[in-house]
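During the reporting period the student researcher (J.K.) took over the structure-prediction task from the postdoctoral fellow and processed the backlog of single-chain submissions. One of the processed entries is reproduced below for the supervisory committee.
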Amino acid sequence: STTQGLLTPRMTTAQRTAITTPADGLIVYDTDLKVFYYYSAGSTSWMPLSSGVQGRINFKRIKSTDVLATVLAAEKTAGSNTKYVLDVNTYYEINGTIIFDLPIDLNNAYISGQDANEDVLVRTSGNLFDGATGGSIRNVTIQVTGGGKVFNLSGVATQNIIIRDTVIAGSSNVGSITGFGLVFVSIVQYVGNTTGIVYDTISKLLISNAAWFSNNAGTYEKLQGTFGLVQKQGGFSEVSGTAIGFDVSSNPTITGDAVLETVVFTGTVSTGKYVNGYTVGSYTGYNFSNNWNVRCAGIPNETDANAVGEFSVDY
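J.K. obtained the following structure tokens:
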């Protein structure tokens, strides 16, 4: 024919590799990797039918038109049909707005969109990220309504989580992250959330350029428990009304150093506060213990420094 083409069967990577005893030379189109594959009986493996660059391995694309129960069938089975347990070290690309019916267990996988304005994760009831494992979340917008939490994560010191280039907007509760070895939050916007986030007992907590807008409510960021190192640098907290920008009133223990620097605290509060300070270990008119070094616009500078001088008495 000069007007038509050959259409091969189209299927996901999981469906392709599940074919029983494929015939030598069988050709299919992998919709996950966007590559034609043929089966080689001699090597008992699927080979890419392409002279171009082969698609990523450990990769899965989730599109807004997909049926989650189909495209994440293995992950749902791994979670006993109560959550999606992602494949470890696998890159999940979000394409469009994806509404999750069950929580996600990151399981040290990577979730990323191409554009946070276009690639959105939504949960209308219940928590979105739930479990005891770390992973990476990037380039997406997240919205959790109906009383659920964005994060309900309780891990151990060997687990790490990275959240960056992300927007968390219109959520009931940003949630809590507890017990991790490293939590790295960078370039994250918080918009119109009812309740903020609690960081609890983390070995190394690094927050860089977090933007809290004045339409957030409740307590934006709260620290409790024990921390080896804390660094919150850059960004701003626009605090208004009854909101609290940064809460250390539970007197978190710092075994190493804590730095709060170049964060702009601004806004008009009534009964709220820019910082809800230590109730034990701070000085009158200040907010933090002497484990902290603080230099931010809108709140007092605080640092633990040494002074040298001479004192003499003429009897």
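The committee noted the following: The chain has a mean pLDDT of 94.
J.K. will present the remaining backlog at the next meeting.
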